[in-house]
Input
Amino acid sequence: FPSHDRQRALEYCLVMNVRQCLLLPHTIRGHEQLLSRLDGRFTICCRDLPSFEHVALHAPHAKRVLADDMAFSIDINSLEKRTATVRHRLSLLLDKDWRKNARQWRLALTLCNPDEQGVLNILRGDREALCQDGSRDGALDLPDHYKIKHGGRASCDQVAFDLLRCLGRAKTVVTDRLHVALPSALLGLSLEAIDNNYGKLSAVFDLSLPGKIVIR
Output
């Protein structure tokens, strides 16, 4: 899994003996021991075929489903309307986690701009990055500046809308971040998607938009 939070959540569900557990679409690699403990109460949604096959092999008793990444379900017009309401702004004001971390996110947005040719580079700086020597030609890893851990619906909406608005200023997006590549595709932007170190981007696009996006 891309996050230890999901691993802990599944382990907690096992400890608490839950009646049902649904894991929304994820890329799943490794964690064979945990997967082997999952039974028919667990439904695992896989957003790519390699994940589906991995779950079938290592969690044979769990239910498994192939499903598009949830970013494909974003209704951009509805999102824009929600974030323009007074209720939305009040919800942000009442969200302590948002108030604590919004400044860092807003600052990152101001630094994330396309170049003179309209090319916007957003490249990973974490362990999934292909380039591990720190040389990314000055590209900003925008999602890494999103530090909100327990935000409510309003903060999630705001970050999604901020990202879409940021991407919308570009003509071409170059990225190895899946959740930058997907909204870029939704916006119809020219996209140069660079696969990460275990093929996550190519696998997700092969399932949901086969043949429409070139991954390098």
Summary: Residues 125 and 134 are 7 Å apart (CA to CA). Residues 96-111 form the longest helix (16 residues). The beta strands are 21-26, 42-46, 63-66, 119-122, 172-175, 190-193. The radius of gyration is 18 Å.
